[in-house]
Every structure is written in C-alpha cells, then in structure tokens.
Design brief:
Glutamyl-tRNA Synthetase, domain 3; 13 strands; alpha/beta; 4-stranded antiparallel sheet
Length: 470
Amino acid sequence: MKAGYLAGLGLPFGGGNVICELLAWRMLHGGGVAVAGSPVLLHLPEESQDAAGASGASSVKAPWALGHRMAKAIVAVFGDSFDQAPKQKQEAKEAKPKQDVKSKPTSPQAGALGPARRRSPAFVALKPADDWGESLKETSDGRSFLEKIDTDLAKGGRCHGQKVLTRFPPEPNGYLHIGHAKSITINFGLAQKYGGGCNLRFDDTNPDTEETEYVESIQEDVCWVCQGLDMEKCKAGGKPWVGEPVYASDYFQKMYDFAIDLIKHGKAYVDSQTPEEVQKNRGGGPNNLPGVDSPFRNRSVEENLRLFEEMQAGKHAEGSLLLRAKIDMNHPNMNMRDPPMYRIRFSHHHRTGDRWKVYPIYDFAHGNEDAIEGVTHSICTLEFENHRALYDWFLDNTSIVPSRPYQKEFARLEVQGAFTSKRKLLRLVREGYVTGWDDPRLLTVRGIRRRGVRPQGVKRMCDAASWQNP
C-alpha cells in the first residue's frame, strides 16, 4: 500500500508506522483510505465493526480534510482567540516556541456536519489487553525508572514491604483523549507489573468546570483502555482501579487542615494584594526580574488564621484574598515564588454543594492527595517537572501528612494535526462543528473507539512512545 497521510489528521500511514496501525485501521477496514490531497469523505458505518469487518447497514458521511487547511478554517470561523490559552498560561509558556496547532473540520463550509443528530456508537465488548507491564520496556529512560522502582521496593528501600500504588487523576471537565490513554497505560501498567494497584481519582478542585457526565464517561473510557470492558462488566467486578473511584473533594477537610498546619508554623499567609499586583510582584519575565515580597507577607499567625477562616466562611469577595505558601520570592524556579494555595470561589460544587467557599490550587492539592491515599509513585507528564520542587516542599513542610509519595514525569503524547485540548474540543462539540465527543475525526478515546480501534492497538502505540520529549 502506498504511504500517505490521513486526511484531517496529518498523520502518516503505511511503511510500518505504529500510528498507522492505530488510526488507519478503521479506514482500511471499511472506511476507505484518505491520501494527502483534496478533502475527502469518510463513509462511516453507524455501528462499530468487529474484528471480521462486519458493519451496520447504514452509514454517515464524515467530512475530512488536511490539518494545515483546517488550521486556516479554524481562524476563519472562530478567530485567533480560539488558539489562545488564558493569559496566565500564556505567560508561563513565553520561553517556549509557539507550536503550529492543526485542527479538525470546524465549519459547515469547511466540511463539518453541523447540528446533526448525535449517534450513540454501538460499543463492542473486547477481550482484556495482555501484559500491560510491556508498555514500560520501550526506552532506556523507561528501564531506568523501573530500576528505580526495584530499588524502592528492595530491602532498605523507601517502599520496602509495600505494594506499588499509582493513580490516574483526570479532572472531570471533558472526555478523555489519546494523551490520557498513555497516562492510563503507564499508571495501570506499573501497578500490574509490580502486583500493586492504581487509584482512579477525580481531581475535582475547580467547581466551575466539573460535571457528573464526565465522571461517568471517564470511568467507562478507563475500563475500555485498560481491559476492553464495557461499564456493566466493570460494575460486576472487572474494574481495573482499586476499590471505588475517589475524589479530591473527599479530602477537602484534610487539605484545609494541612493549610492550617502550614499557617501555624509560619509557612503560609493570607495575601490582600489584587491579582494584578500578585502577578506583577512575582517578577520573572524576559528580563528575569526579582520578585517583590507582599506587604502582607509578615502578618501574624493569629491574623492569618482569622482571615483564612473568614475566607471559608464567605466573608470576603472572590479575588480579594489569597492563601500563599511562604517560600522565596527570589527563587530561580518561578513556581516557588510564594505560590497560591487557596482561592475564594462561590461556585456550586458537583459533590460538596455550597459547603466550601475556598478551593485548593492544584499544586497544593496534588501531593496532599497522593499522601492521603498512600500513593508510592506519582506519575505526571513532563509539564509538571518544574513543579516537582513545590510538590516536595508542601509534603516536607506539612507536619501532619500521613505518607511521603514521590513524583516522576513522562513525556506527553501529542499528535500533530489533531486537537487534544479539552477547552478546544469542548468548543467544537458545543457549537456543533462535530457530531459529539465520539466523532471519529477527534482523538478522544470515544472517537478512536468508534473508528474500530481496539484497546490493544492503543496499548501498542503507547508502548512505542518515548517517556522523554523529542
């Protein structure tokens, strides 16, 4: 077969390419082949195909086109702002070269289906994937990490006598995509290899974005990626995670107590600066400016405790106060310059309702959640590598944490010519430019599954992906 590119994705196929096995399988067994050139139509059966290639009688036409053309269509329909992250995230990425993000069809003129009726895919029960531990043997970096775990578990190691416990902690603000599949494979793979377990934890610390719909879909997608089981089989005892799913919100009271502990030891303070003043006084930027101490940094322990309790009681407006860690405003790592711990939010939380008026920032919550659960190895993507020092600081300076986990990073899985940003995917879905989260043009787990890709194929691709950034 002649090598080419999958239209709409910019993905190479043919020539033994691993991504070919994953993403072209559906086209090659029922949908036809799209070669680089003019936009084409993929004829997609409404029902998923089985291994023999049988499909439903009816089909729908899903327009596809080359990724670089769709990038232009995105700007034409949504404007430049569609590809812009929030301001604070942009500033954190100033030192990194801007990447050319290519997209999928977004407008009726560019080949979108518009507000078509969403079709529920007919999911097929599949056999469990074999030996998930293999996903950690592909690179020297992966092997060195496994050797480190062996050392941790050996006599005299920090985890001697314990079971390996990892966690997969998605935020319930969207459906899972191919990048999450790599994290699932690694975290559940480590647990399988070492005879341990993996927690499914919903990181629901942001009440503005989480929905129960996403909680349910994530559980089903994790089951499928791990074992090819549908949700009913998971409920019958085949779920891959330890016990029941857990939530960051389960630990809100404990994390609040951890914050009180830091305040009592003079390691956290309530800041009354405006958000603009906080950002300005952090320093950094192109000229690497030094940070400036907040004028409220040396408040007494008693005043900080009172103000923090008032924050939780709802006596102060959103954005008026911020609980910050007291570290070093001139630290070379910007994440260590008195980072925020808690902010005021009056939003309704999907599980705790209106009980809480303060919510923990991810960097504070992350390590504490791991410690509460007894996680032995916290596996994150490389974007959190510079956050590891802060992860360690919170754990080492809170006197009442029940255990001491450690963080390790792996490279994110990104596919050129495809969206994986939940923010962008959500906009495409809500505005009707794709048929739903299971649209086969999307690299969501649902979209991949609807193409006919098996979980074993997802695993093989994750096996071949490096732990390191290219």
